[in-house]
Amino acid sequence: MRVIISGAGQVGYGIAERLSQEGIEVTVIDSNAELVQRVRDTLDARGIHGHGSHPEILAQAGAREADMLIAVTQVDEVNMTACQVAHSIFDVPIRIARIRAQNYLRSEFSNLFARDHLPIDVIISPEVEVGELILQRMAYPGASDIVSFDDDQVLVLSVPVAEDCAIIDTPLHQLTELFPNLQAMVMGVIRDGEMIALKSEDFMMAGDEAIVSVAKDQVNRVLAMFGRKEELPDKVVIAGAGNVGQYVARRLEESRNDISVRLIETNRVKAQQAAEKLEKSIVVYGSTLNDEIMREVGIEQCQMFLGLTNDDETNILSCVLASEMGGATTIALVNQAQYPRFARRLNVDAFLNPRAATVSKILRHVRRGRIRGVYSLYNGAAELLEAEALETSPLVGKPLKEFKFGEGVRIGAIIRGGEVHMPNGDTRIEAGDLVIVFALAKSVRKVEQMFRVSIDFF
Q1: Which site from 163, 184, 251, 394 is most exposed, i.e. has the minimal number of CB atoms within 10 Å?
Q2: What's the CA gap between 154 and 217, in Å, rounded?
């Protein structure tokens, strides 16, 4: 498979890194010579200096033989033009574009992206993707990460394991005895910075971050088991009134009449624009690192604080200040993968990586066949996959205890006929089942053999 990526920023580089690691022929285009050189120096990928929307540059990148174009520059119009040129001149089969401006995505303009107009097969909106993840996280404040599958029937939670956790040091196979009818499965943990897949005889330890699959109607029960059940917030403060902050505030306004939302923005123009666009939320001009500003927005009574600026350090430090001044549950938007490792010591409750969210969304469309969903965990240390079992799969028809999964692969849940089933050794997978799989990075290829499809690329 040959993939051209237009844009070598954080998202473009992240996609190129993932695809090149799996042997895909990748060419990255960017108008910034330094970013192109970084691709050449650090990745097994070609780097071309130029504009990804220019025909001669796409030709140089091998567009005539390419299977896919992924346009993720910072400029929407460049991404859209690149897709048009790739289609009209080079007949590239699949075209994916990142579009940030929400006006382009309004329903009344949907015909813009018809094949006869702007031929874009998949539109990725980082603000929408990240905003929806934040809203989902807010619905379950006790979890530090949430991934949903099959229209939210199954959620995979990342939950901190504290010293007072009721199920600490308990072999996992005993959980079903202690909690009858429990529809949840602990698949792995992050322990001392390493992702580990757990077996039924293993147990969780204080300081772990547990990776748990659970039926949606039992999420609160599972969080209570971990001592992490928390009430929904009715007072929220948001640091940053940019695209993500405005999107979250607007969705909260639409969904709840009883919620108080206040935004803090350091840019006067952005603050004024946000105040004009939002109906109920209050926008304050100032810095979230200023004690007086934080008191002005009522941080002492705030139940949840969201650090959603474009600066990682500001998001982390403002979360620390919010926690100290009012004890709010905090969520920080963080692009640098290494920051959460030490920021947790500062009592920041949860993190969300915009790049990881966007890369994961794009990978769902790059992956082929019966893989419905793909989500990267802990900067690629493991993957969660939602796969459809075919009749040809060696998994179908035999008890799971007879199948040798090897190290690093765990079945987290099975969705059959709209019902969620938690697997055990006697469970038999049937053709047509949707299976949630946890796999360490080194074991992802084993999943390909289990399903005989689609972890392969085109």
Answers
A1: 163
A2: 9
CA distances from 248 to 153, 165, 442 (A): 23, 31, 36
Residue 374 CA, distance from chain mean position = 9
Residue 378's contacts (CB-CB under 8 Å, 6 or more residues apart) are: 190, 195
CA atoms within 13 A on the CB side of 295: 3
Tokens 């009749």 found at? 391
Q: 192: buried, middle or exposed (CB in 10 Å: 19+, 13-18, 0-12)?
A: exposed
CB-based contacts of 211: which residues, under 8 Å, 6+ apart?
Answer: 156, 157, 158, 186, 187, 188, 189, 190, 377, 382, 438
The CB density around residue 246, as the number of other CB atoms within 10 Å, is 25
- Residue 216: Cβ within 10 Å count: 16
Whole-structure pTM value: 0.73
Which distant-in-sequence residues (6+ apart) come within 8 Å of 27 by Cβ?
2, 3, 4, 5, 45, 46, 47, 48, 61, 62, 66
Write the CA distances from 382 to 194, 211, 453, integer angstroms. 10, 11, 19
Q: Give the integer Cα–Cα distance in Å for 161 and 225.
A: 10
For the residues 432-456, what does the mean pLDDT come to?
A: 75
Q: Is the pLDDT of residue 188 over 90?
A: yes
Which pLDDT band, with edges at 50, 70 and 90, does 455 fall under?
very low
**389 pLDDT higher than 90:** no
For residue 33 the two structure tokens come to 């010579």
Kindly report the backbone phi and psi dihedral angles of residue 85, in degrees, each rounded to the nearest multiple of 5, phi listed first: -65, -45
Rounded Cα gap, residues 257 and 238, in angstroms: 17
